């Protein structure tokens, strides 16, 4: 026994020593000195208790250089993934199984667009945003050359090439691709239009319904120059190794509704969960400038952030900025399409795609007058038609100015400068939320909006044979959706439909029905003494008021005897207020019952594959209330049977199936069917898709109050398994009161660092899941007093050692 004990102790000792050695080789350096050639002066970096760097520099160049260095130290592999997605080079690093993803993004045109945008970017001279970007990139490359590369490169047998400004534009292009709702939705809607009777589509919310909640516009008075007048100056794919931007909430409350008498600002961007999480927080300080921001990997300027005088955040606008045109090839010439009274050429180019461990492949991309042909890279399109279908996408029509825009957002000194910066963003569509120390609140929809002919339904494939379905022009930015200092005393956006524009257009999009917006608006309007502490309850709320109405409409139609033996869960569902508390049993039955009801309704017409696609679109969330409550809908009948099924039959059958499955899954006692038993949350690392690396790199988090369309949206895929894996949610939660900006708070889903050996890899995961916040420090004395780690980046001229 002694020998066995000593042997086990020896193995344990070797494991500890081995881990210490590996940790030393790969862990980030948060303390000490590093001498770097590119600095003009020394920079001091104080890390707070959560690993957030507070960078003190003597000039703007050194501030952004230092940001690039520390950002790469914590998130270099995330930067690698982001630039490879945007440049279509994932297969080069991760292997042949990512080849289809590379083909998709290359066909869509993001790498081509990045090259175009970058060529114009490089021609700029002496602009502060270009100088700051160049400094940031130099900092990233300095870390690649001088720092400890993360362990992922060792495991993959690779080393990173230097970062370039074209990489930054590739990342911006990927961000602009966002949630790809048009690609998920339009082929499905087109198929429905072509194969089903109109009565089927009447029950779906393909377009915004009168019952949905819209964001009110409040257009400001303007000067002759167009500036705001103000006396006070008052945002296949499952293979992606990086998350998609999906939604978001943000609201800004004016002084008339706050206890402090100053603006209260909140933002929580909804993004696919991953490890590391998407945002990197950093505080940069140089003479006359102090900015605290949330940064995307590889992008120098915060997309969300604040100074002591202004704050801004994002939600996805969800506007429709992509159309698909079905072309007709000239029977006599396969290299041109029929167009108007003549023909239009099909252009072709060959791109080489490198593949890990294999020879590069030649990939042909063909483009019509409307854009790239997508049949080969979007299977749903290829199955629907043999005709070429082209993607017309606003983003690739002009070079991006996102770097200039985000620099100006983070450096704006008043509301007019803020709006000017917002107007530079042409895509993706973003709701930019704003508040400032002067008491101004605002919301702008940032996007270049095409004016489509009145007859065009942008959710179905358009006719590529003529110019009759093509846009007729562009809406001026001043007519975009916006609200500046409204009388209501708040602005809010939750990915829902903006109200009619000043030009009379009700702009189409892939908007959510407005459940979150309605809840936010009702709660805020009920008080005039909101505080930074009291508003957190709304930001953490898991209530959806529509779900109980759906549930009751289903309960009312079924035979009560079906609930015999399951009375507790029926009572819970009847009295449900729409919350998703972990000890509640109502949502456990509701989502299971909802799934089987929809499946019995729709899978016979759509087929299983398209039914699952339906559950991944905005159509699902927008259409459920109407689908469930419409008595004479054709969806109730099963087209594969001779008899005609009714609403009652389908809902009863779905209930019987659901109760039986839950009994087998959770036991006969329905009192124990608590929500916490069927919800899981795991933040997956790009390498965590393969066992046993999932145990090493993925972050398993405590159970959260998963839900559909509550303010604290923690989304999952509706399915029949009865296990709901939370796939997305707030990528941060920010609360800021301008009465004391230095006391603003936030939280990240896992941690600040993407380095496995950092203490900050997952130190916020439990706090996030349990609804806690931590400070966003800006006070210099507090930062330096509380910091346990001080990293000094020193110029070579100050180093007296050989």
Automatic annotation (TrEMBL):
It comes from the Bacteria. The keyword Hydrolase applies. Transmembrane segments: none annotated. Keywords: Hydrolase, Zymogen. Belongs to the peptidase S45 family. PANTHER family: PENICILLIN ACYLASE FAMILY PROTEIN, PEPTIDASE S45 PENICILLIN AMIDASE. This is Penicillin acylase family protein. It comes from Belliella filtrata.
